[in-house]
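Section 5: illustrative case.
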């Protein structure tokens, strides 16, 4: 039995060991972890896969993936939006992709407790954070990307900026561990949080059909307390099909396992732990015969789509399970009560 399986109820359909092994099985010899066999890779989802590997105890595989990512960083601190066999595909450079490494690194530190990992990747992580903050406006929001020609797209995405908020918290936690003072990061985090809380209308509303637009501000901790409760309750029925899960987009009957698992993380983070467990139970049987999870399915006709086994989808299932069942020391990463500003309460 895989060690993390022992922390679950014997009758649980979830087999974390099988899920983690599937992610490891997709990894190429050079450390790259594509979305699926023969698929593309993007930097944000690769970090998600690294977190899944670390939850599953595949620490060497996680380090290999981070090494692969580090080798492909652009001089300005960014990464391209996608790679196929390590060759750039979409050469857009996105702000949230540039700094999400900080979340994966801090998560890895919580699990392994190895300060050397933080020191090794500190220069890479710092350059990525700087790229993102160089796209921050005076009012706090962060532009989402630069075009392949290097032109800034003056549009801010709420889900992307929320991801950056979490990345900045983790980057500052790492800087504290290593004894580096980064006041510009603290100022950027403060401005970004204020923007999300007070000026949410400045973010591109055309993306509001995506469920990430709804719960990412809560998942990241940018919205907490009554603000988080009000937002969660106001839009619940827009995105959630009771007994099934969370839609990817509000206007399509497509339940996605990743978004449902992230919703579980958001509910758990804000303190609604019983509800988080209920929502997680809705998707526990949405799996292939090898006990790895579907990407998504349509409802009510129950067509599994797409049919590929997705690395990062399975990784976030592990992250949700970790939060609910305390499988690793990284279980509290997203909990609002675990953070005091940019300081994590160990």
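Designed sequence:
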């Amino acid at each position: 039995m895989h060690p993390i399986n022992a922390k679950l109820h014997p009758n649980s359909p979830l087999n974390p060991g099988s899920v983690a092994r599937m992610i490891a099985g997709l990894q190429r010899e050079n450390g790259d972890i594509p979305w699926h066999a023969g698929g593309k890779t993007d930097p944000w989802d690769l970090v998600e896969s690294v977190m899944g590997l670390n939850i599953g105890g595949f620490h060497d595989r996680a380090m290999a993936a981070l090494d692969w990512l580090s080798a492909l960083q652009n001089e300005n601190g960014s990464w391209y939006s996608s790679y196929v066999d390590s060759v750039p595909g979409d050469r857009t450079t996105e702000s949230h992709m540039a700094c999400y490494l900080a979340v994966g690194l801090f998560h890895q530190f919580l699990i392994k407790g190895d300060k050397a990992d933080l020191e090794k990747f500190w220069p890479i992580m710092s350059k990525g954070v700087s790229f993102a903050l160089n796209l921050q406006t005076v009012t706090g929001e962060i532009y989402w990307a630069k075009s392949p020609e290097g032109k800034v797209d003056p549009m801010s995405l709420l889900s992307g900026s929320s991801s950056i908020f979490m990345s900045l918290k983790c980057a500052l936690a790492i800087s504290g561990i290593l004894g580096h003072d980064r006041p510009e990061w603290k100022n950027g985090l403060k401005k970004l949080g204020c923007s999300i809380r007070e000026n949410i209308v400045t973010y591109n509303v055309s993306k509001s059909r995506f469920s990430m637009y709804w719960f990412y501000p809560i998942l990241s901790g940018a919205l907490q307390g009554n603000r988080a409760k009000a937002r969660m309750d106001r839009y619940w029925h827009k995105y959630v099909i009771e007994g099934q899960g969370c839609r990817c987009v509000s206007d399509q009957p497509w339940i996605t396992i990743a978004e449902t698992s992230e919703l579980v993380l958001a509910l758990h983070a804000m303190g609604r732990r019983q509800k988080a467990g209920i929502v997680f139970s809705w998707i526990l049987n949405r799996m292939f015969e090898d006990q790895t999870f579907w990407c998504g399915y349509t409802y009510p006709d129950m067509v599994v789509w797409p049919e590929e086994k997705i690395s990062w989808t399975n990784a976030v299932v592990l992250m949700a399970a970790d939060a609910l069942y305390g499988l690793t020391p990284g279980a509290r990463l997203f909990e609002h009560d675990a953070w005091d500003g940019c300081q994590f309460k160990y």
